[in-house]
Design brief:
Radius of gyration: 19 Å
Number of domains: 1
InterPro entries: AAA+_ATPase, ABC_transp_ATP-bind, ABC_transporter-like_ATP-bd, ABC_transporter-like_CS, P-loop_NTPase
Helix content: 25-40%
Largest sheet: 6 strands, mixed
Family: Belongs to the ABC transporter superfamily.
GO molecular function: ATP binding
Structural class: alpha/beta
Protein name: ABC transporter ATP-binding protein
Shape: globular
CATH superfamily: P-loop containing nucleotide triphosphate hydrolases
Number of helices: 11
Distance between the termini: 50 Å
CATH topology: Rossmann fold
Bound molecules: adenosine-5'-triphosphate, magnesium ion
Strand content: 15-25%
Keywords: ATP-binding, Nucleotide-binding, Transport
Number of strands: 10
CATH architecture: 3-Layer(aba) Sandwich
Order of helices and strands: EEEHEEHEHHHHEHEHEEHHH
CATH class: Alpha Beta
């Protein structure tokens, strides 16, 4: 038996923008861990440092200090060269994949690119894997030859997810991945993510503004304010005994406990709509 080791362990993470006396500390000593197959929700008001953490996890940013241990290996101090073989393990799904999807490439090419990088040699094999992924995320075969501008927001998000999956990641960092979508489309994408997790044991760090989604998707939640973690724990316990005003708002707008097990799209649609109303009322 090996000792229990979380898939991701972040220790005393500090991230500053700028240098010297102009440095701004966006993340200030954050520590958390995520087990394999688990979803950790990260919530907190705008500007508290959520996206900064997400960017550090995929190493779009280099931390000022602290550790990012993936399976025990610290990614924080690594050079781009050292990171290359590890990059596929952590993938990111962005809020608007439109910006991150090349508008001139077909969906099949977009998804096949990471498959090729993984070392799958023949073009026809790459196309086959891409087609299977596009099917898996619920898009029709006719999507293969179409380009991003021809898709709806929800469809583009599915392509973004298929592309992320093409690297065969262990951890998916979703930064407001469903926030720009209509409520019903949002529910469908969340359902897809939860199905994928059940099938493959994927691990998620799920950053969201939508307080209603938190309870449905994650057993554990981390609440941030001004670059620090102000509360962290089991979502249910956190919502039952919120210490922070933000968490209290989270509780007021969160889903009913009866909807905890399995996401039923229709229920989720209703819940997200209700949470939006509650959010507006509590501001
Ligand atoms: N490139 C940058 N240079 C300087 N400051 C930045 C940069 N990016 C973000 N910041 C600042 O760092 C802080 C954290 O930003 P971040 O984008 O991580 O917040 P967030 O929690 O993701 O907010 P939101 O919910 O609005 O997306 C903010 O004060 C922001 O203004
Ligand atoms: Mg953000």
């Amino acid at each position: 038996m090996t000792a229990h080791q979380p898939l991701l362990e972040v220790k005393d993470l500090v991230i500053e923008y700028g240098h010297g006396e102009h440095a701004f500390r966006a993340v200030d000593g954050v520590s958390f861990s995520v087990d394999r197959g688990e979803t950790l929700a990260v919530v907190g008001e705008s500007g508290c440092g959520k996206s900064t953490i997400a960017k550090a996890l995929v190493r779009l940013l280099k931390p000022t200090a602290g550790q990012i241990l993936l399976d025990g290996t610290d990614l924080a101090p690594m050079s781009q060269g050292q990171l290359r073989p590890l990059r596929s393990k952590i993938q990111m799904v962005f809020q608007d994949p439109y910006g991150s999807l090349d508008p001139h490439m077909t969906a099949q090419e977009i998804v096949a690119e990471p498959v090729a990088l993984r070392g799958t040699r023949s073009k026809s094999e790459q196309r086959k894997v891409a087609a299977a992924l596009i099917d898996r995320v619920g898009l029709p075969a006719t999507a293969l030859e179409r380009k991003p501008p021809e898709f709806s927001g929800g469809q583009r998000q599915r392509i973004g997810i298929a592309r992320a999956l093409a690297s065969n990641p262990e951890l998916l960092v979703c930064d407001e991945a469903t926030s720009a979508l209509d409520v019903s489309v949002q529910a469908q994408v969340l359902e897809l993510l939860s199905e994928l997790q059940a099938e493959t044991g994927l691990t998620y760090v799920f950053i969201t503004h939508n307080l209603g989604v938190v309870r449905a998707i994650s057993k554990r939640t981390l609440v941030m304010r001004s670059g620090r973690i102000v509360e962290q724990g089991y979502t249910e316990e956190l919502l039952a005994r919120p210490r922070e005003e933000y968490t209290r708002r989270l509780r007021r707008s969160a889903l009913e406990p009866s909807m905890m097990s399995g996401i039923k799209p229709r229920d989720l649609v209703r819940a997200i709509a209700a949470s939006r109303t509650a959010e507006k009322e509590s501001v």
